[in-house]
Structure formats: C-alpha cells, structure tokens
Design a protein that fits this description.
alpha/beta; single chain; Rossmann fold; 2 domains; 43% helix
Length: 359
C-alpha cells in the first residue's frame, strides 16, 4: 500500500491553539496508521486560508517535492484559498481536499472577502480528484454551492468516556469552543443575562488567541452584564483538566452561528451530558448521529443568532426538573451508539483507496 501525504496546518501540534479541525486531522492520521494505511504528515506553517508569500512558497515547494502520482490528502483550510498553488500540482498528484468548513461560511467576514474566498475555494475544489466533507450537510452545501458532482462524507468519531456526574443536575453550564464570532458566545452572554435571576455558572473553555478584539469585547460585555463572577473564560484545556470540566457539567451549550458538524456535541453525549445548541449546519446531524433509542432526544435546538430563544431554552432547562431528567436519560442512552474514530478512519481509508486506484 503506497503512502498518502496528509497536508495539515502548521499549528496542528500547538496545544494552545486546539480546534475541531486539528483534532479531526490528528485522529484520522492516527487511526489510518493504526489500521495499516501508511500516512506521512506534512505540517505547513501559515495564516491559512490567507497565507503570506512565505507560506505560499513553502506549500508550493513541499508539493513540488512529492513524486508524480503521490496521493495527497489536503486540509481545506490550507488548500482551498490558494488554487494558484494547488492547481499546477493537481495535474501530476492525486489530491483529495478535506473541507472542515467552507471558507466563505466563516462568521465575521464582510461580503467582499467572503466572496473572494468562496471563488478561490470553488476553483480549487473543481481541480482536484476528490472532495471530502465532515458531515452530510457540508457535502450537500459544497455540492449545491460549488456545482460539484460528488462529495465524500467522513464524519468525526468520538472516544468512549466516563459518565459525567455533573454538579447539581442543573446549574453548571459548559461551552467548549474557540472564542470567535462564529461560535456566538456574545449571544450566549446576552441570553445568560436574561436568566441571571436563576442559579447557574458557565465555564467557557477554548482558545482566546484567534480574535483578540472579539475576546476583549466579550470580556467587557460580561462585566457590563454583571456576570464576571458567573461566566468564566478559562482558555484552552486538555487531558485531565478538560475531562474534569466535562465531569462537572450539567448541560453543554453550543451557540454557534455556523457549524459544519459540532464535535463538542458528540463529545458531550459520550459522557451523558445533554446539549443545548443552535440549529445550524451539521449540528442536528451530530445531535442524532446514531438512531435515537425509543425516539428519545438528547438536547434542545434553537434558532441561530436568537438570544431570546436561547434564553428561553436555558430558563426551561433551569426550572423544569422533568425536562432535565428526560434529556439526561436520552443523552445517556446515546453513549453506546455513537460512532468511534475507528469508523471515521475506515471511511477515510475507503476514500484513499479510491484515490490510489485500489479496489
């Protein structure tokens, strides 16, 4: 079996900058190698998807150095914005692009830059041998929006995890997300201010480096709402520290404005933690990844960019004991039917076999 070159962002190993995309890339490579698919990782530094000339040159040189016919799995964050680098290599390499989030869907972009990234992505995706998305929703979005004929779907997996005991069954809220406009934490703070008459605390766990202006504005909002002793931005967590945050959580909250899948949802469900999330992108898919036992629902979905709806759902959760019991039971039933990372690696391996021309 020939080696696949997996091209990933240069910060993939930086624990201060965790992301769902980096976690996905790492676990897929790990799983492929464990299952016998030889994979070589090529981490390319740069401010992707808008790299400077040095990063462009580095990617071009790295791809040029690969022998003709090499199979390349290219992270879309790296490749989608630079068709001028990718397309000349697509004529001699067998390239599959892995799209975590369509570039134009990133929140906070004005119409001009979003349209520019959208056009660059379309050019890249039409030039390569295969396109892979991490949810059925994203595959449909790419197919319809860019006029692609086929997109492979390889959803994230999840690790088995111990059942989270929670705190008091209601009041400990947990939001695991990068502190960026797309994750909607400002809407969450507005919603939390609306339920400040009730007892709760909220841990916001995730990187703070991506958008310092947004982080500063969010801190100011928390202070102005009088929530600084109840809403905590802890920065990124890993290992035992993150496990402890999950173990203490009664409800996971994901108020995203755009989301291709939402790995935090299945990570919460694997611990039996109910989820309150916005009904965007692939979030409903993550919420119902496996068939719901006995028709149960493990969480609540609300419209995006609607702090009032989010506040109403929070109030229901905090005041309705029967609802909490129902959602908690449903979340616990989901734990044993979620797909693991082994399934993700098998699906990715099947795509790579096609890329290599193997049966």
């Amino acid at each position: 079996m020939t080696t696949t070159c997996f091209v990933v962002p240069g910060d993939i190993g930086d624990l201060s900058r965790p992301s769902g995309g980096n976690t996905y890339d790492h676990r897929v490579r790990q799983g492929l190698m464990a299952a016998g698919w030889p994979v070589r990782e090529m981490a390319v530094p740069g401010t992707w998807p808008r790299p400077d000339i040095v990063a462009r040159s580095g990617l071009a040189q790295s791809l040029s150095a690969l022998p003709d016919g090499t199979a390349v799995l290219l992270d879309g964050l790296v490749g989608c914005g630079v068709p001028d680098v990718v397309i000349p290599q697509a004529n001699r390499l067998r390239i599959a692009v892995l799209v975590h989030l369509p570039l134009g869907d990133e929140s906070g972009l004005s119409s001009g830059p979003a349209a520019e990234l959208d056009a660059l992505e379309r050019e890249t995706l039409h030039a390569v041998d295969a396109v892979i998305a991490t949810s059925s929703w994203a595959a449909r979005r790419l197919t319809e929006h860019h006029g692609l004929t086929a997109v492979h779907v390889v959803p994230p997996g999840v690790d088995p995890a111990p059942l989270a005991p929670g705190t008091d069954g209601a009041s400990r809220l947990l939001c695991v997300a990068s502190v960026t406009p797309r994750k909607g934490l400002d809407r969450l703070v507005t919603a939390l201010a609306s339920v400040s008459d009730l007892s709760w605390t909220c841990d916001c766990v995730g990187p703070l480096h991506t958008d310092p202006v947004y982080v500063a504005r969010l801190r100011q909002q928390i202070d102005e709402e009088g929530l600084s002793d109840r809403v905590w931005m802890t920065g990124p967590q890993h290992g035992e520290e993150l496990s402890a945050s999950y173990a203490a959580a009664d409800l996971a909250v994901l108020p995203s404005l755009a989301e291709t899948y939402g790995m935090v949802i299945t990570e919460s469900l694997s611990r039996g933690i109910p989820v309150l999330a916005t009904n965007v992108g692939g979030v409903p898919e993550a919420m119902s990844q496996a068939p719901a036992p006995h028709g149960t629902v493990p969480g609540i979905l609300v419209p995006p960019d609607d702090p009032e709806a989010l506040a109403a759902a929070l109030r229901r959760w905090l005041t309705d004991h029967e609802l909490r019991q129902t959602l908690r039971s449903a979340a616990r039933l989901r734990r044993d039917v979620l797909d693991g990372w082994e399934t993700t690696s098998q699906r990715m391996g099947a795509v790579l076999d096609q890329l290599h021309g193997e049966p």
